[in-house]
Every structure is written in structure tokens, then in C-alpha cells.
Amino acid sequence: MALLGPLALGMLPGMTSIPDLMLADGHAIPQLGYGTYLVPPEKTAEAVRSALETGYRHIDTAEMYDNERGVGEGLRASGLARDEVYITSKLSNAWHLPDDARRAFDATLAELGSDHLDLFIIHWPLPTRYGGDFVSTWKVLEEFQRQSRTRSIGVSNFQIAHLERLARETGTVPAVNQIEVHPYFSNDEVRAYGQEHGIVTQAWSPLARGKVLSEPIVMGIAERLQRTPSQIVLRWHVQRGDVVFPKTMSATRMQENLDIFDFELEADDLEAINGLDQGEAGRIGPHPDTFDWIPG
Ligand SMILES: NC(=O)c1ccc[n+]([C@@H]2O[C@H](COP(=O)([O-])OP(=O)(O)OC[C@H]3O[C@@H](n4cnc5c(N)ncnc54)[C@H](OP(=O)(O)O)[C@@H]3O)[C@@H](O)[C@H]2O)c1
Residue 140 phi/psi, 5° resolution? Predict the structure, then answer.
């Protein structure tokens, strides 16, 4: 092992590997990935190549990020095989009608240059659009899964009422629900519903877009444990059992954010971070019950 360089191994210097979580459909997902929201399209291939070289094996993208093509290019530039990397993409708010969703999924695969995804998810429920019908959209995702063009299917920004409706009206449970979660907005009710129903929570904006990194409680724990604030916050997420994919353009921060599997937070520190929750006041993104934006 020691003779292999960092490019061959990734993950140095911690030398610990990223754990997999098991989804209810039997597929495994790496608990830490690389997020690509606001990674500019022209910089995506290099950012993704760099993340893969650092040791990431899970990339989160979306049609609405306009960078799926760069994700595919970055994967090919890395020299890794398609099946060595877990790739998620998301259905745009513009394409909830079934035929639109079918065309959009074809386009996503073409942009990525892949014949399948690991996970495809509905980006937003849009309960005030499409006559409030996200159920027919979900049934199209079930179709993609039956065709083996995506291993898993899931949702994003679904509230408990939306998940209950899917459970009532369809035969399948989403493998994941990707929702806003960070210390200022711990979103525990939606997470608890997921835990009870076999839905893995993916925590988006895990660092609250950087805002929580100057929080004195986080900085204090980081100083005491000789870690960085980002490592403390990501470790808090991982110990809560969620999947995370922090976004950064910096190779140094990519390494820093990956190097969280060789230490543990004690119960007191977890509790102190739990205490930062501000409920709804801590939410930084749009509210899923009212968000209705459709790309023009
Ligand atoms: N499903 C959804 O609706 C949804 C919504 C939002 C996000 N997401 C997904 O979740 C991913 C992560 O969320 P996010 O990008 O909104 O926010 P985030 O990961 O919480 O924060 C990203 C910000 O933190 C900074 N940062 C990252 N690592 C750092 C470190 N070690 N030290 C200091 N600053 C650091 C980054 O700056 P630099 O780039 O300058 O390093 C960037 O400004 C997205 O990329 C996307 O894949 C999904």
C-alpha cells in the first residue's frame, strides 16, 4: 500500500475509506460525494477530475446545474471506469410531464455520455405546479428503473405530506430524499420520516454554504480536536447517518472535506452542534411547499 502514490490511491493522508450506506433497493451509495451546484459549466470537467483524483467516488449533479456534460468529461479524464463512480442527476422543474421527463432523462444520459445513472431524482416536488401531480412524474422514474437505465430512484425537497402521498398512490418508496440539512436547519422531522420508512436522507448545503464554518461552537470543537470547522460539520452529518456532498472549487478543500473518516465526535460535541438548530429560521434555500420556479 505505502508504495502507491496519492493519484493511485486517493484519500491520502487519512488513509481511511468512504463508507457505503445501503439503500432500501439493495444498492450501495458512498456516504460522501462531491456536489456540483454552482460549479460553472466550463470548469466542471476539471473540478470533477480533481475530485476523483482526490478520492471522491460519488458526484451529485442536475440538469438545472447545466454541468452534466462536464461531469461526464471529468469522469472520462480521470481514467476511472464508469462503474467505479456513483453518479446522481435530477429531473429539471421544467419536465414533470411524463413525455417531457422521458426526453429529459435521455438528454441527461447523453450529456453525461453514459447509458445509465446510479440515482435519478425529482429535483423539487412543485406542489403548486402541474396540478399538484408529482405522482405521474414518479411513475416515469419507476419506468426508468425497470428498464435498468438507473439503478435507484429518489426525490429531493419532498416534505412528509409529499412522501405520504407517494406511499399511498404508488408501489415504491424513494431510495433517498435529498433535502436541506445543516446545523442551523437540522430538518429532523423529515429525516425521522425517512428513517422510519427506509428512505436515506441526503443533506444538501451541508456547510450551510460556508455560513456555519465561522460559528464559535464549531470553531471551538475544531480547535480542541485539531480539525477544521468543515471537517467537524461534515463529521456531524456522517454520524447522524446522512449522505453529504459538499461543493468546493478548491483542491485543498476537497482533500480537507474527504479527510473525516479517522476521528469521531463525542456525544457532548454532537449535542452542542444539535443546539445550533434554528428551525425554519435557519433554512437558507426555498421552501418546498411554495417553491415553483421553472427554468425559462
Ligand atoms: N437538491 C437540491 O435542491 C439541492 C440544493 C442545493 C444543493 N444541492 C447539492 O448539495 C451540494 C452541496 O450544497 P451547496 O453547494 O449548496 O453548499 P455547501 O456544500 O454547504 O457549501 C459550499 C460552499 O462552502 C465552501 N466550502 C466548501 N468546503 C469548504 C471548506 N473546507 N472550507 C471553507 N469553505 C468551504 C465553498 O466555497 P469554495 O467553492 O470557494 O471552496 C462554497 O462556497 C450542491 O453542490 C448540490 O450538489 C442540492
Answer: -70, -35
